[in-house]
Amino acid sequence: MKEGKSRKRKRGRGQQKPQESLQPKHSTKHKKNTQQHKNHAPQSSASSKPPKSSSSSNSSSFLDKMRARLAGGHFRMINEKLYTSTGKEALEYFKEDPELFNMYHTGYQEQMTHWPELPVNIIIKWLKDRSSSLIVADFGCGDARLAKNVKNKVFSIDLVSKDPSVIACDMSNTPLDSSSVDVAVFCLSLMGTNYANFLQEAYRVLKPSGWLLIAEVKSRFDPNNGGADPNKFSKAVCEMGFTSELKDFSNKMFVLLYFKKKEKQSSKGKEIEWPELKPCIYKRR
Ligand code: SAH
Predict the structure, then answer these.
(1) Does the residue 39 lie in any domain?
(2) Tell me, what CATH number does 105's domain have?
(3) Radius of gyration over alpha carbons of the chain, in Å?
(4) Could you list the residue range(s) of the whole structural domain that residue 145 is in?
(5) For ligand 1, is residue 171 a contact (CB within 6 Å)?
(6) Chain-wide mean pLDDT for the chain?
(7) Least C-beta-crowded within 10 Å: which of 4, 38, 122, 245?
(8) 194 CA distance to ligand 1 centroid (A)?
(9) Residue 122 shares a structural domain with residue 246
(10) Which residue has the higher pLDDT, 30 or 67?
């Protein structure tokens, strides 16, 4: 039913080509053609008069567009809130209105449809290449895609639980036992201003030699565009008691950082200098 308009409609819904869909505000140039919606009528030969049936289709496409705009606006507002709050504040925010979590994830899923590759799928593959007996904690699991796609025991953690298997809490303070997990995953979820507390919690629940896997939006680690220096970030994680095993910058959209927990914590009590991680603000299209 949407044929013939899909291209324009898609762009009209606020999504551009993937390379540009997820960039911090300060780093993207904003070009916009706002005239598109005027031309939504299906193309009908040389006549400028639209065919009879197109007026209702025009108005529904206009309404669709307005709804998408509104949803996009809500999504960006919630997204910004999550990047500029502590985990505790974010938990309170969603507790007051859990519907905001649904709005956020509708927008998030929409954004993800424009990514050529999802980091969570790479992590799923990484896990599938290893023993399924490894116990996993997915910090900021979203729709728990990770747990649904591997045989491992996965503790899925997020601010709101849409599924009985998801533990609802602020991930700086989980109910997981210390040294109980083999792999801690943060897939696009280091959102809070106190992200170091999230990583400290992962350190606590990980067994010695356990893995810490971090996937983050690339622009957040692009020092040329106001992002953090990945080496500084990595150094801070290592000072907490990890060794850096692999840094993968090959993907256009995200970086993947793999760490292993040391057998012994080396620098307890030492003040760690964490670089600021810029919010990833989604542009209005
Ligand atoms: N990891 C999933 C979802 C990423 S979206 C994926 O790759 O698809 C980021 C998720 O992190 C959101 O669901 C958000 O609610 C969650 N999140 C952000 N801060 C959090 C916190 N302090 N505690 C728990 N979850 C958090």
Answers:
(1) no
(2) 1.10.10.2150
(3) 21
(4) 117-261
(5) yes
(6) 83
(7) 38
(8) 14
(9) yes
(10) 67
